[in-house]
Structures are given as C-alpha cells and as structure tokens.
Amino acid sequence: MPDTGExxxxxxxxxxxxxxxxxxSKKLVSRTRPLYASPEANNKARLADTKKADxxx
Length: 57
Prior knowledge:
By secondary structure, this protein is mainly alpha-helical. Helix content is 89%, strand content 0%. It has one helix at residues 6-56.
C-alpha cells in the first residue's frame, strides 16, 4: 500500500484539535479559579485583620 501522507495530515489535525482543547480548558480554569479562591482569600484576610487587631490591644 503506497504512503499517501494521509496519516500525517490526520495526525496534524488531531494534534491541533488537542492543543485547542487544552487552551480552552486552561482559559476555563483561569476564569473559574478566582471564584473558588475568593472565599479562601477573604477568610485569610479576615484572619490577618483579626490578628492585627488583637496585637494592637
């Protein structure tokens, strides 16, 4: 069976599609991460403020 190069073309398309999917998932994670990190960051800030207030007394 002669090598038509068709496999290389399919492989390139698959690799391109996979790279696109990875980029989309990274963007989604970066958009959703602040939503999840926000309560934790707020709790840390409150604890830091509480500790500062306690040391001033």
